[in-house]
């Protein structure tokens, strides 16, 4: 089957509406005093995605990133998205000097697949160029050990803050989270049933740029815009999946829709210079790393993540691996990460790429592939 035929097949495939017509939604209680704003996801361009490719963004070995090429890719993407004649005007459509801007990175795939230093550095440069003081730009992630491993400081101007909410995963630090903004739900009889939003998001930031990667995920099928900003901004989220069972189908979108996270996330820049087609969200081995060599721009996280499903599925098919939709009991090895890392035809959980459609049902964006407008350009 050629590439076009395969993508047409995937585009026509049913998502959550048929796979989960009878699935019960857990009883979520959302506590937030923040009202919705006009800038709320999916933003001013629902269903619209700009794709910028460049074979030159990485060296022939796929290791070194060419920052100059990435800068041109970002300029081209932002101008195409906004229709502005220059990059500065394009960024000005989203941000102004009085803003306090968070740059939500993904640092969990070190060393192979994280939000690129070149993409993060150029994003911060453009924000400061608009007149935003360096002290009002915060590069953030949940876990300090991941940020330490990636170390964005060499590409950041003096005064830009790098902030994490917790020392490491499952550490249980709570001081960085807002006690008044949370989602309460019980999944597996756990003691702590609340997931709280970072204080940084609720009490300091006015805008967020979301910079996820293109990754497979063992629980959610893919991890892109939605999961990066949702699971990356709330505490106590890993409890949503355990022993081959996952509630990511509904939890990802529920978290992403909470105010003020929904209204403050105004721009999505998906870093697809490199990606992970199996074993995500981490990249424990280069065996499952691939090179899409593209960036995706938009304000609609659902539309971008719908395209991500296609990208990961196409790559897995090319590698002879099972689909991220595979629910065969023979493919599941309960919480056996060694088996998963050794064999791309193994799931440790029943994955839920249908979380993208569920997020669409909450009004977060456009999931119907026939209504997603992709504008492609090459540098």
What is the beta-strand fraction? Answer: 15-25%
Distance between the termini: 28 Å
N to C succession of SSEs: HHEEHHEHEHEEEHEEEHEEHHEEEHHHE
Instruction: Look at the helices and sheets and give the structural class.
Output: alpha/beta
**Whole-number count of domains:** 1
How many individual β-strands? Answer: 16
Instruction: From the alpha carbons, calculate the radius of gyration and give it in angstroms.
Output: 19 Å
Count of discrete alpha- or pi-helical segments spanning 4 or more residues: 13
Question: Low-confidence runs (pLDDT<50, min 5 residues)?
Answer: 1-22
Biggest sheet overview: 11 strands, mixed
> Whole-number average pLDDT?
92
Topology summary:
Blueprint: H1 3-12, H2 16-19, E1 29-31, E2 48-53, H3 67-82, H4 87-92, E3 101-104, H5 117-129, E4 137-143, H6 144-150, E5 161-166, E6 177-184, E7 194-198, H7 199-204, E8 207-210, E9 213-217, E10 221-223, H8 225-230, E11 241-242, E12 245-246, H9 248-256, H10 261-264, E13 265-276, E14 289-290, E15 294-298, H11 301-318, H12 337-342, H13 355-361, E16 373-378
Parallel strand pairs: 2-16, 3-4, 3-8, 4-5, 8-13, 9-13
Antiparallel strand pairs: 1-6, 2-15, 6-7, 9-10, 11-12, 13-14, 13-15
Helix pairs in contact: 3-5, 9-13
